[in-house]
């Protein structure tokens, strides 16, 4: 899409959201006009923050603290919009409810106050959740597996902007403390020009595991010179799985680890996922497939026991979960796709866009593969 057209459409959507909040929430509050004016001024300032975010992300090099401030308005506006919808519906229901005028006025004032308090509280909570990465522990039983293996999965880190060297350093320390057999990174690792990401990326050299670290590309790698990113990751000593597989563990007691390019490659006509190549010459052992987007599972054959994915961020801000569900068959956690195939979807170790998460915490996944006894 033409950048100017995208930028115009992007801002147009947010103008409409601002108009709805102004007309259906702020205008309906039972408060003095000057307070309504302050809230509308906040909306205008917030909107210019969104413009600053777009410029800072794609066009202008700005200080990290300023980028942080510019990153917040998109999330704040979205939460305000969701609050405005609930407020609007509640107000209409209250208006038609069979209660006395005095009681209706009391409920209306309570609705006004609680709506603003909830929007503020959710914004604060979501900022807290984005910076506190949870450890998700899960045991997955695999048919024909001979011994136990520990996989630590990272996904959707989105290096760039607010995901910096310190963030990655802390993640690496936590992963190493788990003493994994292997570490897998299931896409969207880099979300900036690789020239600006190398210092942060270098922190991944310190990842320690028995059989090494493995990486597949996600859709965001295609936006920032995918070939350069793959080369940079390889230079760290990390194995990039490009429609291929490797064997993990001792002969006859391990498992196949396969990885494919992302489905975004179908659009670019390059770096296209090929399941047949990824599963070629498999050993007689279980197979774990790395594929960035859960919807790739529709192309998976019966030769795969477990697929590890990311991409969805678990919805990142809870109401988005319903929109993501329109595109992806699975949003988070462990799911049984069919009799022979399971899929685990990591909610993302970092975040994209606003540094906010609500109902979908960032995660490091500690996966223990277990034999079925």
Task: Describe it.
- It is a single chain.
- The chain has helices spanning 3-24, 33-58, 64-95, 101-131, 165-177, 194-201, 226-234, 265-268, 275-278, 320-324, and strands at residues 134-142, 149-154, 182-186, 213-216, 239-240, 244-248, 255-259, 287-290, 306-309, 333-336, 342-345, 363-371.
- The mean pLDDT is 92.
- It has 10 helices and 12 strands.
- It is elongated, with a radius of gyration of 23 Å.
- Helix 2 packs across helix 3.
- The strands form 2 sheets. Strands 1-12-2-3-4-5 form a 6-stranded mixed β-sheet, covered by helices on one side. The protein has a 6-stranded mixed β-sheet with strand order 6-7-8-9-11-10, with no helix packed on it.
- The chain has 2 domains: 3-130, no CATH class; 134-371, Purple Acid Phosphatase, chain A, domain 2.
- Strand 2 (149-154), helix 5 (165-177) and strand 3 (182-186) form a beta-alpha-beta unit.
- It is 41% helix and 16% strand.
- With 373 residues, the protein is an alpha/beta fold.
What's the main sheet like? 6 strands, mixed
Mean pLDDT: 92
Q: Helix and strand succession?
A: HHHHEEHEHEHEEEHHEEHEEE
Distance between the termini: 53 Å
Number of domains: 2
Please indicate the percent range of residues in DSSP E strands (runs of 2 or more). Answer: 15-25%
CATH H level, superfamily name of the largest domain: Metallo-dependent phosphatases
**Cα Rg:** 23 Å
CATH class of the largest domain: Alpha Beta
Structural class: alpha/beta
Helicity, as a percent range: 40-55%
- Name the strands of the widest sheet in spatial order: 1-12-2-3-4-5
The CATH architecture category of the largest domain equals: 4-Layer Sandwich
Write down the overall geometry.
elongated
Low-confidence stretches: none
